Amino acid sequence: MFRNRLVTFKIGTALVAVTAFGQEDYSRLKSEVSVQALASFVKQTTQDGVTQGATDSSGVIATYRYYFTRHNGVEANYAWAPNTEKYSQLGLDNNSHEISAAYVFRLPLRRWSPFVLAGAGALIFDPKNFTGANTQTRAAFVYGAGADFNFTHRLFLRAEYRGFVYNSPTYDLAALSGLDRMTHRAEPSIGFGWRF
Hints:
The protein is mainly β. The chain is 11% helix and 62% strand. It has 1 helix and 10 strands. It has one helix spanning 2-22, and strands at residues 31-42, 45-47, 50-54, 57-67, 72-87, 90-106, 112-127, 136-150, 155-167, 182-195. A hairpin with a 2-residue loop joins strand 2 (45-47) and strand 3 (50-54). The longest helix has 21 residues, at 2-22.
């Protein structure tokens, strides 16, 4: 009887060890990379009789995150989305590039990890096929929230919302001089990531 209990104890201990090993704590992994599809929506504003906005568009965002602790980290992002910036009747097709960095706070739970972020960046507006329009960079405040949903301790699905507050571009065009104003860009996104 003692021998049966000893064998049962050894098997039970082995199963607990295997189970614990199989559930590695993903929050111990310091780095993450992700690629997401994004949608871009710019708030339309009217000032001095001139309406400014942009067409809704889609693009892609790539992110690298590094966590100093279980909850605190930083991220660097690059995103691209084509759209048309509009000032009343004038529309300029352009490629919009985003470069940003942010502080990230997360709550790493077993199956998912909600997070919030805040930081700064630059929006680069690169006009296409418009004579006299120059590439223009605007500083931006970025904020956001989202969640990572774990498939494994390394592979996850990220759903995120990011917002940008910035000064609209004028492309150094005389016709748009003084028409720039503070605006907001909303960017929901979804994609996959990998921890290492």
